[in-house]
Design brief:
Elements lengths: L21 E5 L11 E5 L4 H10 L3 E6 H11 L1
Antiparallel strand pairs: 1-2, 1-3
Bound molecules: zinc ion.
Protein name: Acetone carboxylase
Organism: Actinacidiphila glaucinigra
Length: 77
Amino acid sequence: MGFVTDESPICSAKGCRAPAVWVLAWNNPKIHTPERRKTWLACEEHREHLSSFLGVRGFLKDVVPFEEWETSSAADG
Ligand SMILES: [Zn+2]
């Protein structure tokens, strides 16, 4: 019960161990080239918190469901 493997994506919020269901793609124009994407993972509860954190800084580019992100990055290969 509650067993989580190393494979399981976990929310990026501090102290949160919930499974990630969202991918937040972001870019800091001061340190990253425009096409570069950093990603944070978020559970349902922290999606809004993390996306507003990035949003107020103008870093947030995209919020996509984790499954969709995996599929599209796999297809990209
Ligand atoms: Zn969380």
